[in-house]
Write a structure and sequence with these properties.
- The complex is a heterodimer.
- By secondary structure, chain A is of the alpha/beta class.
- Chain A is built from 11 helices and 14 strands.
- In chain A, strand 10, helix 7 and strand 11 form a beta-alpha-beta unit.
- The mean pLDDT of chain A is about 95.
- Classes of the chains: A alpha/beta, B alpha/beta.
- Chain B: Its cofactor is thiamine diphosphate.
- Chain B: It holds the Pfam family Transketolase_N.
- Chain B: Keywords: Thiamine pyrophosphate.
């Protein structure tokens, strides 16, 4: 059942409101920009598709068009942050942090300045643009840079809150965003704190057999899987881990220990990403069987978002199958 | 700004010589690091720290200071030496260069030593950072200037051309680039490795004001910094022609000294174990020019 403390949207399973996580950025950044004049937004010729154009319209004097030059954009942002501005810089995640990773590492990471890297169009759910534009490696790239916090919001509303929180955070942040409209699960009442995972689904009958940890918009697929599994008598928990780094160790270990088996869900390569981060933690603190939902060492391709998510094994049925599989792997 | 008197010029030249001595001493003690670039830029860094820059060694975070961003971080020994002589820290501390626990990292780290402005080493990014800094400062109506010291070789990086385009577009008149045009890089002469010329034309085509100077002529460099102040519609590049290894005749212009410290450089002219000693003797006995 839905955890009542999560204050999720009542219509989430029937007729959910649909919005992309990037739209949440568009709203959140105007809110943050209203609250703090130090905030500036940069883009590399992608104002509209990154949703930075909302900020551009509201605060034209604090919007900086960098042209198609992501390496320059990252380092201009670093310079602005060194001065004392709070720059959010936006492009597709394959280009930023893809193309400009070293600039980010050196001038933002080692410098440890408060700049926010916004990587849009993450995951195969970018759709028709194809593999070159579908970032599946960005969380792996960013969680290896010291000082960086990595956030992957589950829906538009959480994305809005995360943007406002990142603006006040004081150290480097990577934020991952999706292109496609996905169900809005959370509400303005849903708790959000950077670094604090939220349990969204708890079993009717305790204890759970499996703990599902999900990040990004696939949290919704994980909840659908949980609902289906409950009908089959398989009790699970679903935790929304919006902060991929640093992990909320306390919540994750508590849920993992209670269940004894884990499934991780992300729209990203399984190597080096969110599932890997969970596995690193579990390997040290409580080794348990884990199944990984994500892209298994392949590039994406053109297609519709839903069919691509299914094709690459990240749909509801795949999550449910992973739960059944991992529960059978539990030591007797 | 008033023209320098002869006595003032001589005083700056003396300081440059002392800074070169410190560079050789610190590199010899470190046993690794770059020699040619720091020696070649000693006159310019002397002029910056002892005449051009608005700064306060006792208050490195002074909000109104001019910013000096070093893009080619590998020549940082010249910056450390100039900062030490200017009073940021003791000259003795220079001997900790590249040692475990030192604030004087092999490439500059902002977090470790006040006054460095940024972390650098990977080439081609300092001009963008400087441009971002200058843009942000102009938004707030600040009147300090942002200086960016760069190498010629790093102009082989794409990032720097993006920065030139950006600074030209936004007419960042509070930004002054200083290019160390010493014609060498690790693997050889720049025009063999990857020709850069015509650099002046290229910067001008990107809407920069360009001033060429002899990088060892301190009054000329200072005059160029003054001239840049009068250019209101464009960023300025001071294209400084320098001699790598300047001050030590045996190594001047020799690209093989780009990345070696005294004691580990080419031994065809001076045996390795005599290099530091010979360099120091030469610097102490000859005049700056």
């Amino acid at each position: 059942m839905i955890n009542p403390d999560a204050k999720l949207a009542e219509n989430m399973f029937d007729k959910p409101t649909m919005a992309s996580t990037r739209e949440g950025f568009g709203k959140g950044i105007v809110e943050a920009g209203t609250a703090d004049e130090r905030i500036v937004v940069l883009t590399a010729d992608l104002a509209e598709s990154t949703q930075a154009h909302h900020f551009q319209k509201a605060f034209p004097e604090r919007f900086i068009q960098c042209g198609v030059a992501e390496q320059n954009m990252a380092t201009v942002a670093a310079g602005m942050a060194l001065y004392g501005k709070i720059p959010f810089f936006t492009s597709y995640a394959t280009f930023s942090p893809g193309r400009n990773w070293e600039q980010i590492r050196t001038t933002i990471g080692i410098n440890n300045v408060h700049a926010i890297v916004c990587g849009m169009h993450a995951g195969v759910s970018v759709g028709p643009d194809g593999a070159t534009h579908q970032a599946l490696e960005d969380m792996a790239l960013m969680r290896t840079i010291p000082h960086f916090t990595v956030i992957s919001a589950c829906d538009s509303e959480e994305g809005r809150k995360a943007t406002v929180a990142a603006a006040e955070f004081g150290s480097p942040v990577y934020m991952r965003w999706g292109r496609d409209k996905t169900p809005v699960m959370t509400t303005s009442e849903t708790p959000f704190e950077i670094g604090k995972a939220n349990v969204l689904w708890t079993p009717e009958v305790k204890p759970p057999k499996v703990a599902i940890f999900a990040t990004g918009h696939l949290v919704y697929q994980a909840l659908l899987a949980a609902r289906q599994l409950e009908g089959e008598g398989i009790a699970v928990t679903v935790t929304n881990v919006h902060t991929v780094k640093p992990l909320d160790r306390e919540t994750i270990l508590r849920e993992a220990r209670a269940a004894g088996a884990v499934v991780t869900v992300e729209e990203h390569q399984i190597a080096g990403g969110f599932g890997s981060a969970i596995a690193e933690l579990l390997a040290q603190e409580c080794p348990l069987p884990v199944e990984f939902i994500g892209v298994h060492d392949k590039f994406g391709q053109s297609g519709e978002p839903t069919e691509l998510v299914e094709h690459y094994g990240m749909g509801v049925s795949h999550i449910a199958a992973a739960v059944r599989k991992v529960s059978e792997r539990k030591p007797v | 700004m008033e023209a320098l008197t002869d006595a003032e010029v001589r005083e700056l030249e003396q300081r440059a010589r002392a800074i070169r001595v410190t560079i050789v001493e610190m590199l010899a003690a470190a046993g690794s690091g770059h020699t040619a670039g720091p020696l070649g830029m000693a006159d310019i860094f002397t002029a910056l720290y002892f005449h051009v820059l608005k700064h306060d060694p006792k208050n490195p975070d002074w909000a109104e200071r001019d910013r000096l961003i070093l893009s080619n971080g590998h020549i940082v020994p010249v910056r450390y030496a100039a900062m030490a002589h200017a009073g940021y820290f003791s000259v003795e501390e220079c001997l900790t260069l590249r040692k475990f626990g030192s604030r004087l990292q092999g490439h500059p780290e902002r977090d470790m030593l006040p006054g460095l402005e940024t972390t650098s080493g990977p080439l081609g990014s300092g001009l963008s950072e400087s441009a971002g800094y200058a843009y942000a400062a102009r938004m707030d109506g600040k009147d300090f200037r942002v200086f960016c010291a760069m190498s010629d070789g790093e102009h082989e990086e794409g990032n720097i051309w993006e920065a030139m385009m950006f600074a030209g577009k936004y007419r960042l008149a509070n930004l002054v680039g200083i290019m160390d045009r010493n014609n060498i890089q690790i693997d050889g002469d720049t025009e063999d490795i990857m020709p850069l010329e015509p650099l002046r034309d290229k910067y001008e085509a990107f809407n920069w004001h360009v001033i060429e100077v002899d990088g060892h002529n301190i009054p000329q460099f200072i005059a160029a910094c003054d001239e840049a102040r009068a250019i209101h519609e464009k960023p300025t590049l001071i294209l400084a022609h320098t001699i790598p290894g300047k001050g030590i005749r045996e190594i001047e212009g020799d690209y093989r000294w780009h990345g070696n410290p005294p004691g580990k450089g080419p031994a065809d002219k001076i045996p390795a174990d005599k290099q530091a000693e010979v360099f120091l003797a030469e610097l102490r006995t000859t005049t700056n020019n």
